[in-house]
Amino acid sequence: MSAPVPTHCPYCALQCGMHLVPLPGGGAEVAARDFPTNRGGLCRKGWTSAALLTSPERLTTPLVREGGDRRRPLVPASWDEALERVVAGIRRAQAHKGPDGVAVFGGGGLTNEKAYQLGKFARVALGTSQVDYNGRFCMSSAAAAGTRAFGVDRGLPFPLEDLAAAEAVLLVGSNAADTMPPFLQHLAAQRERGTLVVVDPRATPTAQAAALHLQPVPGTDLALALGMLHVAVVDGLVDAAYVAERTTGWDEVRRLVLGGYWPERVERLTGVPAPDLRRAVHLLAGARTAMVLTARGAEQHSKGTDTVSAFVDLALALGLPGRPGSGYGCLTGQGNGQGGREHGQKADQLPGYRRLDDPAARAHVAAVWGVEPASLPGPGRSAYELLDALGTPEGPSVLLVHASNVVVSAPDARRVEQRLDALDLLVVTDLVLSETARRADVVLPTTQWAEEDGTMTNLEGRVLRRRRALDPPPGVRSELEVLAELAARLGAHRFSADPRRVFDELRRASAGGPADYAGITWERVEAGDGVFWPCPDEDHPGTPRLFLDRFATPDGRARFVPVHHRPVAEDRDAEHPLYLTTGRVLGHYQSGAQTRRVPELAAADPEAFVELHPDLALRLDVQEGEEVRVVGRRGAAVGRARVTPTVRPDTVFMPFHWGGAGRANLLTNPALDPVSRMPEFKVCAVRLERVGAHVPAHVPVQGAGA
Ligand SMILES: Nc1nc2c(c(=O)[nH]1)N[C@H]1C(S)=C(S)[C@@H](COP(=O)(O)OP(=O)(O)OC[C@H]3O[C@@H](n4cnc5c(=O)[nH]c(N)nc54)[C@H](O)[C@@H]3O)O[C@H]1N2
Ligand SMILES: Nc1nc2c(c(=O)[nH]1)N[C@H]1C(S)=C(S)[C@@H](COP(=O)(O)OP(=O)(O)OC[C@H]3O[C@@H](n4cnc5c(=O)[nH]c(N)nc54)[C@H](O)[C@@H]3O)O[C@H]1N2
Ligand code: SF4
Ligand SMILES: [Mo]
């Protein structure tokens, strides 16, 4: 047996350390490894992650439409033929529509090297402004709010180990017990002390671990946070010295919360009893150290940015950010959700978390890329807006997708399918034939995590090494090779396929930016437990803790942001009397493209389901396990009823991990947050219907096989 290779799980942002032990017959076995984020623990997805490496379902050859005809099946093709089809389609679109006729959609699962190269490929090889990525659907609201308040967005501005020093923790809209199970170890102290507060419309395993569970109506966290601030002011819990010394803008926020957010009014808006609200504030304020953490439940709303701002305002009023053992943080989701948003695959950004509309940033990055600053396009459309424009007269007619399965994971999925089908050319690079790849004209097979070298940046801002443990199957190419080859065929050079060279270029491109990687080398990352950015030079130790002395704003002070509660984008009415909220289960990852192909995980959670309260089930005469239809304003989805008292009686919950008729995103609302452009994944209006015996339980996947 070969030596174990130290690496990290391919899935979520916790980036648990693991060993991969290559097996003689091919594939590998996962073994435990002690790492600061997981301390030897892994969840079910991590333990089974090697299964996909040798899965018969993985792609090992490029696929193209027979005769170039969308109505005919996808058939194997040589790399040369497939890439030529891509290049010909790109040239045609550029001739008709100019550079913005071609669009790129990336993902937060890509390594730093791939994310960086994809952004550069879009701006330099294609010259398009039309590039964005799935992180827009993930933590973009928290990123926007973090930048507003602190001048920089790093999900957690402190290492996870600091959680042990927090006497109390407020966890808003996170079901970490299912979404990052080994993370729960870091909350052991608060659980023991009875100082963990969880805000979630469902009594999730995470909420059940809390001393206090606030169970608001979906989409009302903004009012809840302002109500908590009101209590902090009225009960004299504001840290006046900290506010005076380290912040600006308090007076306006203070006036605003005093004026409108007394607990009894907040109770009417949120459904959270006023005494519970008061208790939560006193629990936090009574602790010497405390942390406020948000995740998707608070953020995936058309007011997600303002909601996070309200929780940041609360944290600032209590004097938490920038103090040891205290702070505000966002629990970033995807494996490289943090690095993926720093290196230029976002519509408005350049590497190093630089702004695309900043002339100095453009000049710096253009010099590294060897192009004229004026040749760099400006900011493009955000993820949903980009998908929504595809194939329209003003929008792109070619789309290249890397590491996202938008047919399952984007809001208003039916609309997204229509837009994809209106394209002249859809190119999907993936490991498996995802629902999105099934609709493509050209599918390119790429290497998996265990077959590539590179770096990932986890939820703490810690840069880690992903190591190659195995050779990819013959015929499969790394994404860097694919991008380099495509660039060369388009007449753009300087695209290395060597991840180390790409990382060294990324270091130069990021130098001097907010997310400065200049001093981070692969050797340094390998020597310890990773390096935290910013790290401006090789003698710099990296920055595990931000904001200890100053915030990253021009005056060094954190900014209070005045925000107001507003209703959800789509409220209930007589026809759609329930709220739908969506999220995750432990055993599946995201669109499920990977985990539904891991036999053990597929067997444990084989199909879509709908959680509903026993009172609602009684009213609608729905039995546990029967097929139900959730009907909304954009479509309907089906799933098995799971009757459980853990969900609010006015709310139903669906995970979004399945394709076909079980897709939660057939229902979700693409209403966007005005700042972050985040869609309202977490609340829309629906009704529930019994499907009846005559409708088959399994409706085939839309567009399957094409
Ligand atoms: N098993 C598993 N783990 C994952 C992933 C996965 O797909 N599967 N994905 C990874 C990624 S990319 C991400 S982003 C993270 C997400 O991690 P989480 O944010 O923990 O995941 P979600 O289940 O989307 O949402 C969390 C909770 O928000 C609650 N919620 C819904 N509406 C509201 C609301 O209006 N207010 C509040 N306060 N809460 C609400 C839901 O009931 C849910 O329990 O997980 C990562 N880890
Ligand atoms: N209703 C609802 N919808 C949601 C959410 C929600 O809570 N509710 N959450 C949103 C969130 S937070 C997120 S992050 C998105 C995620 O949703 P998606 O963007 O669809 O994410 P994944 O399912 O991880 O898709 C990754 C795809 O890329 C492939 N892949 C993996 N690694 C690589 C690689 O290195 N290169 C390439 N080319 N392909 C690769 C996988 O096989 C898979 O097909 O979903 C969003 N959608
Ligand atoms: S918690 Fe996340 S990183 Fe850790 S094993 Fe599970 S999926 Fe992998
Ligand atoms: Mo995410």
From TrEMBL:
GO terms for cellular component: membrane. GO terms for molecular function: 4 iron, 4 sulfur cluster binding; metal ion binding; molybdopterin cofactor binding; NADH dehydrogenase activity. The keyword Cytoplasm does not apply. SUPFAM superfamilies: ADC-like (SSF50692), Formate dehydrogenase/DMSO reductase, domains 1-3 (SSF53706). The keyword Phosphoprotein does not apply. GO terms for biological process: respiratory electron transport chain. Pfam families: Molybdop_Fe4S4, Molybdopterin, Molydop_binding. InterPro entries: Asp_de-COase-like_dom_sf (IPR009010), MoPterin_dinucl-bd_dom (IPR006657), Mopterin_OxRdtase (IPR006656), Mopterin_OxRdtase_4Fe-4S_dom (IPR006963), Prok_molybdopt-oxidoreductase (IPR050123). CDD domains: MopB_CT_Fdh-Nap-like. Keywords: 4Fe-4S, Iron, Iron-sulfur, Metal-binding. Residues 2-55 form the 4Fe-4S Mo/W bis-MGD-type domain. PANTHER family: NADH-QUINONE OXIDOREDUCTASE SUBUNIT G, RESPIRATORY NITRATE REDUCTASE. This is Nitrite reductase.
